[in-house]
Amino acid sequence: MALPSAQGDGPTSSRWDGGAEKTDFNAKRKKKVAEIYQALNSDPADVAALRRMAISEGGLLTDEIRQKVWPKLLNVNTSDPPPISGKDLRQVSKDYQQVLLDVRRSLRRFPPGMPEKQREGLQEELIDIILLILERNPQLHYYQGYHDIVVTFLLVVGEQLTTSLVEKLSTHHLRDFMDPTMDNTKHILNYLMPIIDQVNPELHDFMQSAEVGTIFALSWLITWFGHVLSDFRHVVRLYDFFLACHPLMPIYFAAVIVLYREQEVLDCDCDMASVHHLLSQIPQDLPYETLISRAGDLFVQFPPSELAREAAAQQQAEKTAASTFKDFELASAQQRPDTVLRQRFRGLLRPEDRTKDVLTKPRTNRFVKLAVMGLTVALGAAALAVVKSALEWAPKFQLQLFP
Amino acid sequence: MASEMESSLEASFSSSGAVSGASVFLPPARSRIFKIIVIGDSNVGKTCLTYRFCAGRFPDRTEATIGVDFRERAVEIDGERIKIQLWDTAGQERFRKSMVQHYYRNVHAVVFVYDMTNMASFHSLPSWIEECKQHLLASDIPRILVGNKCDLRSAIQVPTDLAQKFADTHSMPLFETSAKNPNDNDHVEAIFMTLAHKLKSHKPLMLSQPPDNGIILKPEPKPAVTCWC
């Protein structure tokens, strides 16, 4: 099964950023803004609806909206006082030197027209925020690229909120990247090739024989593409999407980019250097909305639980020092509930059944399901089943994020 | 130091006649590849050095390298077109352990870089050398030591004699240079070209198209790999 090309969007799908009729565009946008505010203003806020908005075309549209919605997506109470530290962290933090080096070199992350003074002020804030989060969470370890994530929040929501939001993100979505070693990060990267294999075995085999590895996608994954995209609007659009989704969604998005570039990859010399070079240079004009919806489709069709075994096998084949025991445990633990669920939902493809099912499910899961349904309505009940099992794969994300 | 380099260039030139002769009998379509990995602490200038060699200038601004970056440049040595691939690696320790090892495969030479204005980056060298030993199967892979940022004269912390002693202990040539100083353009160039010449006269290298079974090259010529020397 090959993904249709970007041109295959068809006349029925309108684009927020496309050249469609302007009035239509404005009307749709206005409607979406109204819907977002409605969800925000209901008591309690309709987080499921906000998730759908963050995923669906155009995402959350403006930074002003993001300032209000991102905390909801992360379940952060904005009226809580921001965390502070009594210590002079620059004196005592073991990470200060590395953070300083990385932040000083991160000029490209700031808007080109920003006055130097203002940028330098933000860089100082960036250092303090990172050190504060690290101090409050000694289990978290700084990695180069973490600063690319934090700066995105800083530029959108400002200093005070950034600390709370990124702290939450770091103990959930980014948790695996912040282990003492990168073994778990490597494990997540091992999902990439199995996803590609499901969609395009030819491309997969080509990349395998080139021995390209997966490091070309490392910075994509651990910075949520903040390190590699130069247009900040694209970065925040992706953050809307990732904040509303399962923590493994960035690896699906990475796969979708590789799949989108199929022809370029196959035209390349079949060796590690050529393929790595091609893929690590990310095109800046990707059709983001199309790719986002494809990533969602892939996630639903090939959920993490289904790929866990293959990812683990890949790890073994590479003879890394990673915890294969854990992989296999996960793979086998997921096998049964997943299969059972899929069989159970196979007969429930009629819309009324789907609705009923959503309503009878515990509240915790419903939020996520609705969000993904907003993304891929066509997949219906199958989506419910697989997303539920996907969450079981990483139960630690579930309760805290979707209360 | 300059004279040491020149003599090494000369030596390579004089010893490589047989190689060019042999290439006449082989299809010229594929150029050989020299794969060089560049390692060292964060912020010592690995990205700037490789950029300088491949693009011919100091980059406007560089960021932290996450994972591994790759640059290449085609050069001609004794009439033979050769691709020099530079693999620029992340400096932060956590990336080395589980991430970078894949990129040590089939490496022909190693460039260790330290920052002459940062003693800590010099003191890290033994651990980089150890790291490298663990990844590379062959022990006689050419290695060189580069002290970068020599243009920052007033801030130098690593004296040349100390660095030279260290280089001697580990049987590596030492180069002190600056990726930034425009007058040093030829120098950065010469460092990598010296290495390329050394490699050219040293041992067989892989072709552009690696064998499908992913053979890891060892210093001894293996029957599966075409030997042009």
Low-confidence stretches of chain A: 1-15, 319-403
Q: Please give the share of residues in helix of chain B.
A: 25-40%
Fill in the CATH topology of chain B.
Answer: Rossmann fold
Calculate the mean pLDDT score of chain A and round it.
79
**What is the number of E strands of chain A?**
0
Q: CATH superfamily of chain B, called what? A: P-loop containing nucleotide triphosphate hydrolases
Overall morphology of chain A: globular
The radius of gyration computed from the alpha-carbon positions of chain A, rounded to a whole number of angstroms, is 21 Å
Q: CATH class of the domain at 182-316 in chain A, anyone?
A: Mainly Alpha
Tally of structural domains of chain B = 1
Beta-strand percent range of chain A: under 5%
Low-confidence stretches of chain B: 1-28, 205-229
Q: Please state the second-level CATH architecture of the domain at 182-316 in chain A.
A: Orthogonal Bundle
Please state the average pLDDT score of chain B.
Answer: 78
Strand order of the largest sheet of chain B: 2-3-1-4-5-6
CATH level 1 class label of chain B: Alpha Beta
